[in-house]
Amino acid sequence: MHPVVEISKRAVEEYVRHRKVLTLEETPPELREPSGVFVCLKKRGQLRGCIGTIEPCLASLAEEAIANAISSATRDPRFPPVEEDELTQLTYSVDVLSPPEAIEGPDQLDPLRYGVVVESGARRGLLLPDLEGVDTAEQQVEIARRKAGIAPGSDIRLYRFEVERFQ
Question: Residue 46 pairs with which residues in a beta bridge?
């Protein structure tokens, strides 16, 4: 198991069981640089929580993964908080994001390779790459727009990013 996945799993278990935020005695070298990261939880193959940050908010990838893992388990508004009896049924996926780059339009996207950020005013929606059922850049942009609550026809700015996915 990759260290970022292991830390995410330990963070969820520590928080759900003891209501404590995981602290690391030593941060693995590959997790010391800051990065945006999404932590997704699945139970029996179905999404159970997914929260992340587009750009880093904390000092290291390890800290970002811990915070987002706990949020995925306890603060995803689509799901009730994870309970202790579910912990053995969870699988973890951690996406480490490259910095977003501005693009001119959907023709510069590939939904298998790039995630997308759609912005309009203060609203911003994100969709990770390589998701089941998302086959076109247009679908990708539309889903991210809806997630952000951006009305159809609104002026939008697009950004793309790549991820390194660990499971």
Answer: 43
pTM flag (> 0.85): yes
Alpha helices in the chain (DSSP H): 3-18, 61-74, 137-148
CATH number of the domain that residue 93 is part of: 3.30.700.20
For residue range 21-39, list pLDDT tens digits in order. Answer: 999 999 999 999 999 999 9
Q: Are 15 and 47 found together in one domain?
A: yes
How far is 142 from 85, CA to CA, in rounded Å?
A: 36
Residues 11 and 86 in one domain: yes
DSSP string, 105-151: SGGG--TTT-EEEEEETTEEEEE-SS-TT--SHHHHHHHHHHHHTPP
CB 81 within 8 A of CB 109: no
Q: Is there a single domain that holds both residue 158 and residue 91?
A: no
Taking a C-beta distance cutoff of 8 angstroms, is the pair 160, 115 a contact? yes
Find the largest Cα–Cα distance for the chain. 50
d(CA 6, CA 15): 14
Return the structure tokens found at 75.
């603060």
Domain with 107 in it: what CATH number? Answer: 3.30.1490.150
